[in-house]
Every structure is written in C-alpha cells, then in structure tokens.
Amino acid sequence: MPHTITVIRGDGIGPEIMDATLHVLDAMGLGLVYEEADAGMAALDKHGELLPQASMDSIRKNKVALKSPLTTPVGGGFSSINVELRKRFDLYANVRPAISFPNTRSRFPTGVDLITVRENTEGAYSAEGQEVSADGDTATSITRTTRKGSERIVRYAFDLARRTGRKKVTIVHKANILKSTSGLFLKVAREVAAQYPEIECNELIVDNTCMQLVMRPEQFDVIVTTNLFGDIISDLCAGLVGGLGLAPGANIGEDVAIFEAVHGSAPDIAGKGIANPCALLLGAAQMLDHLGMPEKATKLREAIVATLEAKDSLTPDLGGTGDTMSFAKAIATRAAA
C-alpha cells in the first residue's frame, strides 16, 4: 500500500531543494504519494496566514510530512513556525544525525557518526511567561522542565540506541548550576538509563560537551539533552561534518512526524538553482526509516556518499560546478541502480 506524505515546499530555496528531493525519491520507485500543503510566507501570500488549517489537517491525516525551510516574518504572530508546528503536534523528539561525508569542507572527513536527540517542546523555547518590564530594563521568561517531558525524551534516545545498535548514550545537562530544571532532567535521565543496562551511559556538563565534541567527536554515539542545549549542540555537530547543508532533522511525536532540512530558506540564493539538496535528501532518508523502509533509506544515503566521492555535479558550496537538479540527478542515478 503506498504511503501518502504531506509535502511542504517552503520558502526561498525550499521549492528548489524539494523538487530535487522528490526527483530522487521518484527515481527510487518507492510508491510514495505526495499531498501538497502550504506554510510560511508562501502560505501567507496565498491564504493570508502562515499555517493554514488545511495544511494542519493534511499533516494530521497523513501523519508524515517532508518540509523545506520556512521563513517566519519579523513582527507579530509566531516566534517561529517550526516551534509552532512542534507545539501543535507535540513533536517532542528532535533527532539530528551528524555523519562524516567525503569531499566536504569539514575538519572531520571521517570519524563522526553521532545523533543528537533534543527535547523539542519544553524549556527555554516554550516562550512561557515572556515579558519585558514597563521601563524596558528587565526581560523575563519561564523555563519549565517536567518529569514527563524528560522521561519520554530520554527513553526515546535509549530506545533509538537499542533499535539501531548504538552502544552509548551521553546525557548532557547543566545541573551543577541549574539545579532545579536541569537537575530534574538529570535525575529522571538516570532513572531511565538504569532500565537499559546493556547500553553504556555517561553524563557531561554542556560546556564540556561542546569542548569534547570539537576535540574528539568520535567518542560520542547518541547525545540526549534539553531543548536549548540540543539546539546549540546539534548545530555544532553540523559544523563538524561540513555545515547545515548536510544536516537533516526529524521531529517525532506519538502520532505525527515531520522531516526537514534544518538550514534556513537562504533567500539570497533563491531561484539561482545552486542550493545543495543534501540536507532535505538526508531528511527524506530519515523519513524512509520511519516508514519502515530502512533498506531504501540506506540506499539513499549510500547514493549521496557515492556522488560526493565521485565529485559528480556537486553544488558550489561543496566545491563543484553543478546545480541543484544536476546534483540530484547524479544521486538519483545511483539510488535507482
């Protein structure tokens, strides 16, 4: 039975990299059916709102969405469309792999293979209690951590490690200073870790984690942490392997999952046909894993690696002279073989 997925083309370079990604998926003969939905500035222009109800209904019905970058306009409304999507569908787990790729501008062309699992709905990004004093001198925001939120994200990380054969989970915190919020997260994480005796577990303070990642990233396997720390760490990890152009992300909830390229909409290069589609393609590979097609996901990742190794039609950010679609076609040829 074919899978129907909601496709959000997004803003800026979003439609270009989505066209490239769908070209590769179609070449693989996966039998996917696409249902188009609007969000971001494209939706605002067409429907007068950033997140139309029809788009939300499509995601809720299909339970899986593939999303290009969105632009949140400056001013009123949502602080972030992505944050709003996570709230509406309770997408509590943000899963960001970072893997070394050949022929990239990376300090670590080999040796990095880790996943950051970030709590996605609580903490500093909940925007709870935000206010600025009348004199404009003091800003306040509440950071809330719950046992439920901590337990389910840590359990997700350990289940992921168990399911994928990974051997180690690192719990990242700042409980030495943030004794209430980060302290609760660490306490719950220790309780969950004790239920997975076959998986090695260690604990690191977030600042030491960042230093260790830069010095010896090969020591990490799965990292689990809270919202703000996970946002920072996952971008740092992208920098280890060549940048956000190679960084996919999955947002997972109990009922719905949204897969994406985590970089921005890059309006400065929109329409030029030079955007690197790899981040969204790698997000699509995560989607295929989620849909129960791990062999196809592996095939797609291997095709990307082989195309990078061959330096075949690479986009300018990767040092090549190809364009978005020529790069995608080179990947598609290998993925379909």
Automatic annotation (TrEMBL):
Enzyme Commission code: 1.1.1.41
Record key words, sorted: Oxidoreductase
A Pfam family hit: Iso_dh
Gene3D superfamilies linked: Isopropylmalate Dehydrogenase
Leading EC class: oxidoreductase
Name this protein carries in UniProt: Isocitrate dehydrogenase
Residues in Isopropylmalate dehydrogenase-like domain copies: 4-331
Keyword Aminoacyl-tRNA synthetase applies: no
Family, similarity comment: Belongs to the isocitrate and isopropylmalate dehydrogenases family.
Top-level division of the source organism's lineage: Bacteria
InterPro entries registered for this protein in UniProt: IsoCit/isopropylmalate_DH_CS, IsoPropMal-DH-like_dom
One annotated GO molecular function: isocitrate dehydrogenase (NAD+) activity
Region of interest: Disordered: 125-144
